[in-house]
Amino acid sequence: MREAAKPPATVSGIKAALLKAAVAFNREEETAMAKLSRAGAALLADGFTVLTHCNTGQLATGVRYGTALGVIKAAVEQGKRIRVYADETRPLLQGARLTTWELKRLNIPVTLITDSMAGFYMSKKVIDCVITGADRIALNGDTANKIGTYSLAVLAKENHIPLYIAAPVSSIDFTIKSGSQISIEERDEREILQIRGIQIAPAGVHAANPAFDITPGRYINAIITDRGIVKPPYQRSILKLHKEGS
């Protein structure tokens, strides 16, 4: 946007340039998410039950498909019968408030569960695969995503359930080698201690509130991108992806 604003010398010119750049960026995102979603849909068989975490649809991305939720939507558009288990995603409940709302509007069957129920349903062989989005991905496939994703990855591995990450290539940081180089945001402890202003813990208790965690690449079966599906070994396949896009 800084580059777009350079040539015009007037305020009206800068505004017009920024608007043009924003519209172009939105169109690029729309195209990228559609490609990502349709590519990922190939991993979902008819009759699959998918577990997802946090919100990754239109509300999260601002475009028609989204990432993990976009994959589910694209599979349904292809005529596949897909059911979804949605983690509530504490502490801000994006899964309960947003993901279920989007799936309901799309007429995709959804069951809301607490984050701590995921392992139970995996052990009961109810879940066929796990799909989440990503906020940042390192060269070795280590992925930063909403807190709780790492726990899902470990549970999925234990229960022999594939875990897929759906994210555009723009989420891959080609400058970092591993997830250890990703800093984790610590958010206000009141998000843990309260629910919509109502205190749920005794006064004086302190809480930890990391917004994200890091899932090692070794737990991820595939990364679904707008340039296709990337599989292990990630360092090699991600570098190849980077080279092809240069």
Describe this structure as you would to a colleague.
With 246 residues, the chain is α/β, with parallel strands linked by helices. The protein has a single domain, classed as Translation initiation factor eif-2b, domain 2 (Rossmann fold, 3-Layer(aba) Sandwich). It contains eight helices and twelve strands. The mean pLDDT is 96.
In CATH, the topology is named: Rossmann fold
Radius of gyration equals 19 Å
Helix content: 25-40%
Q: How does the overall form come out from the CA principal axes? A: globular
Alpha-carbon distance between the two ends: 21 Å
Spatial ordering of strands, largest sheet:
3-2-1-4-7-11-12
Number of domains: 1
Instruction: Give the mean pLDDT.
Output: 96
CATH superfamily: Translation initiation factor eif-2b, domain 2
CATH class: Alpha Beta
CATH architectural grouping: 3-Layer(aba) Sandwich
**Uncertain regions spanning at least 5 consecutive residues:** none
Taken in chain order, the helices and strands follow as HEHHEHEHEEEHEHEEEEEH
DSSP strand content: 15-25%
Q: Given the structure, what is the number of helices? A: 8
Largest sheet, described in full?
Answer: 7 strands, mixed
Short description:
The chain is of the alpha/beta class and 246 residues long. The protein has helices at residues 11-41, 58-61, 68-77, 94-105, 118-123, 149-158, 190-193, 234-245, and strands spanning 49-52, 83-87, 110-113, 129-132, 136-137, 143-146, 163-166, 194-195, 198-199, 212-215, 222-225, 228-230. The protein has one domain (11-245): Rossmann fold (3-Layer(aba) Sandwich), CATH 3.40.50.10470.
